[in-house]
Amino acid sequence: MQLAVWTYEGPPHVGAMRIATAMQGVHYVLHAPQGDTYADLLFTMIERREKRPPVTWTTFQARDLGGDTAELFMEAARDAYARFQPEAMLVGASCTAELIQDDPGGLAKTLGLPVPVVPLELPAYQRKENWGAAETFYRLVRAFAGPAQTRAPRDPARAPRCNILGPTALGFRHRDDVAEVTKLLTGMGIEVVVTAPMGATPTDLTHLRDADFNVVLYPEIAQVAAEYLKRQLGQPYTRIVPIGVGATRDFMAEVAAFAGLPVPLTDGGDALRLPWYARSVDSNYLTGKRIFIFGDATHAIAAARIAQEELGFAVVGLGTYSREFGREIRAAAEKYGCEALISDDYLEVEERIAALQPELVLGTQMERHIAKKLGVPCAVISAPVHVQDFPARYAPQMGFEGANVIFDTWVHPLMMGLEEHLLGMFREDFEFRDGVAPSHLGHGAQAEPPAAPIAVGPASWVHEAEAELRKIPFFVRGKARRNTERFAEERGIALITLETLYDAKAHFSR
Amino acid sequence: MTHPGAPREPEGMAPGAGGCADTPVLRERGQREVFCGLTGIIWLHRKIQDAFFLVVGSRTCAHLLQSAAGVMIFAEPRFATAIIEERDLAGLADANEELDRVVTRLIQRRPDIRMLFLVGSCPSEVIKLDLSRAAQRLSQRFSPDVRVLNYSGSGIETTFTEGEDACLAALVPEMPAEPGTARSLLVVGALAEVVEDQFIRLFAALGVGPVRFLPSRRASELPAVGDGTRFLLAQPFLAGTARALEARGARHIPAPFPLGEEGTTAWLRAAVEVWGIGEERFAQATAQGRERARAALANHRATLDGKSIFFFPDSQLEVPLARFLSRELGMRPLEIGTPYLHRQHLAHELALLPAAAKLVEGQHVDRQLDRCREARPDMTVCGLGLANPLEAEGLTTKWSIELVFSPIQGYDQAGDLAGLFARPLVRRGKLKV
Ligand code: SF4
Ligand code: SF4
């Protein structure tokens, strides 16, 4: 048993719903009790979808358990087919139905429905949402991609073709990422045959084989399917996720190699602003800001590279809740010289953030709450999503426009250059009190005062030093306290005085 | 309505007097689009301030709680889920030992907790994990600091608000015994604090007392119950709690529910009659509240009068709401869906419904959607999964969950309650895009 306050991922059948809902012409019959229908609201409320997800729930009750829940399932499947007339059906069980072992796949087969039925086995007590999405997408691809083939080299007279794999319903900025990456690929002279699951029908999946290679936007969701297509149809797939300037350039080079095209000009043109914005003097104050990053593996790894190489931050912590990608996260953490955190325990993440005292948190909606509690600025970079993560405007994360969006989103919560200096100089001004938010964020965004710091090390503070520490603006105070305590500990100083504070300041200012 | 000792029916509110108390009810079976009883934790954990709710369930249960809580993510909520894993099912780990370990960690983390609810879910019930025995065992271990109770919020046993019923019913045996037969009033059902305080003042002015509330704000301060206890239900979904209270000698005061000016007046009057207080004092004590409620309702009448309304089943509040909206605001209920119709507790309400309203118990969501589209009501009351799709089809909706999360009972909330229904219509009129 695992104690969970909040969960980063839903159960695996929610992942399957994300695939079914993203696609057209698919209907999912789920053997589940009534309360599980809450999952519909994720799509209709958080993502503001105008249609109900294409899901029929059997909603069996306790009184059905003694009787025939299998019959209930068959009735629901029959009715769902008659009512919705899908091109293909998915059938499966949620956590409770898994325990009663009715075998939805086998039952559906006996119905002899006139459309393909894809049974899903999603072990709810072992796996989670992203795994469920990946497995569902893989099952559908397998069912419709067609027989094995050996890939002939492309006729040079025809344009190279690819598929875009991975965008789902309820994904973090998937809608806009698809638009941005499609534009990027089309600009390189590459045709996109199928984008899936988003917008694809089962029939579209039969055309996956017409592409020369696959572009995997979200490995958490599409890597298993892409791996299958590689084996089955000989299509190579991309490993680089185009989030950030450097990654977008590398992605274009990778794609060009698959497409047999010369490596394109990848400066991004006038529309790419991140590199200049990062170089402009105003951005000097971003230098070395201590950043904690947590999210799904794809977004977290991409964020670490951008933070370090494109904005000049210092990554002090990097983590993910996607255990499946623990190895990748560890490798990235090593590269940026920080400790990796692989955990889906919200409390553990909170402890780590509190201990590291970063100046900016890049995380999910969960970390946004942690950061708010600790009085640290935060930007959201990854699912799990919230209604705010579906902005009305175009806001991709991928490609060059994505890099621009990221620059704005991450820099926005921070104090601006001169403002930070003024706060440093006139810190006793009564209006610069603790918890004051960046002036451009207005009153509404006023941060809560930081929580009492966690007791670190054995050194204690004399009153005078503690008072001096309080004069330091709150958003750098955590760092000052940490540094001073570390300095004291390394030197065996038990009592931190004013002298120790300033000695430490001198020691750490480089 | 033959409860022994039941007070005489409030004036003009006799069931069967031309209302639809005897009209047939359409019973439907099919896909239900409703929450399970776990959802009640979202308001109960705020209401009972020293209690913690530990769901023993699956990742789905944990995900339901956080999705239904939506933006109301509290930094440190007083609820959590002990997620059952493969090891527990495969017998690699003893589920009871695991539960003890999780509870121990929790209690160490939250030393402020005085009462812990182990909340059963579908998975815990299907694998027959005995939470009542677990609660006894853990209660002994953590006695006297923490009392451990259990109830079921599972979707196979409970629908949405029935979770509150199960929770309150579990509290009843914990209530201290009231010696003697001195009369006291118990108001049953979680109410917003502001509403509770208003009722305290009103009952004081009426001379009804002492007044106690279940749930109390602190689990360690449960009200006493005994043969002298008379209780008013503040919510229509408390069948199990009512039975448990009756088993402890308390007696139910049948009444409509305190929604709107009329409902609140009838609800108060039912208590006043038990206490034998005269009409003059009643009129005096309620005059101001009634006047304020009427004035507040008048502001919304123009918007709502004559508008048709269609209820999808959700909280069991549907019948009292339909009664309020039709009688006090002139709305026309077309279909009143409710997950469960407690005929006895709703007798007064049913009598007051317009005859044209169709009552539906249970659900077949697709058929109901067909009927709703066909009827094209001016307003549709439904859950969060249906609201935006219906709006996209041009129907105006009101999220039913808001009615459970907002203070709506009593005189001073009557206007707010009407406002919840008026706002979507007013908004639709305003938007020119
Ligand atoms: S319906 Fe059952 S399994 Fe689903 S969330 Fe509710 S208690 Fe958990
Ligand atoms: S007020 Fe605006 S312009 Fe002035 S320092 Fe702050 S952010 Fe910069």
Compile the SSE list and pairings.
The complex is a heterodimer of chains A (510) and B (433).
Chain A: E1 2-4, H1 12-22, E2 26-31, H2 39-46, E3 55-57, H3 62-66, H4 69-84, E4 88-93, H5 95-100, H6 104-111, E5 117-119, H7 129-144, E6 161-165, H8 174-187, E7 191-196, H9 202-205, E8 213-216, H10 219-233, H11 245-259, H12 274-279, E9 290-295, H13 297-310, E10 314-320, H14 326-335, E11 339-342, H15 346-356, E12 360-363, H16 365-374, E13 378-380, H17 399-411, H18 417-425, E14 460-461, H19 463-471, H20 474-490, E15 495-496, H21 498-508
Chain B: E1 25-28, H1 41-47, E2 51-57, H2 59-69, E3 79-83, H3 86-89, H4 95-109, E4 115-120, H5 122-126, H6 131-142, E5 147-152, H7 162-171, E6 184-188, H8 193-206, E7 211-214, E8 229-233, H9 239-247, E9 251-252, H10 260-274, H11 279-304, E10 308-311, H12 318-329, E11 332-338, H13 347-351, E12 358-362, H14 365-375, E13 379-382, H15 384-392, E14 397-399, H16 401-405, H17 411-430
Helix pairs in contact in B: 7-9, 10-11, 10-12, 10-17, 11-17
Bound molecules: iron/sulfur cluster (SF4) (2 copies).
Can you tell me about this structure?
The complex is a heterodimer of chains A (510) and B (433). Chain A is built from 21 helices and 15 strands. With 510 residues, chain A is an alpha/beta fold. Chain A starts with a strand and ends with a helix. In chain B, the strands form three sheets. A six-stranded parallel β-sheet of chain B has the order 1-12-11-10-13-14, sandwiched between helices. In chain B, helix 10 runs antiparallel to helix 17. Chains A and B meet through strand 1, helix 2, helix 4, helix 5 and helix 16 of A and helix 2, strand 3, helix 3, helix 4 and helix 5 of B. Strand 1 of chain A pairs antiparallel with strand 3 (79-83) of chain B, so a sheet runs across the interface. Bound molecules: iron/sulfur cluster (2 copies).
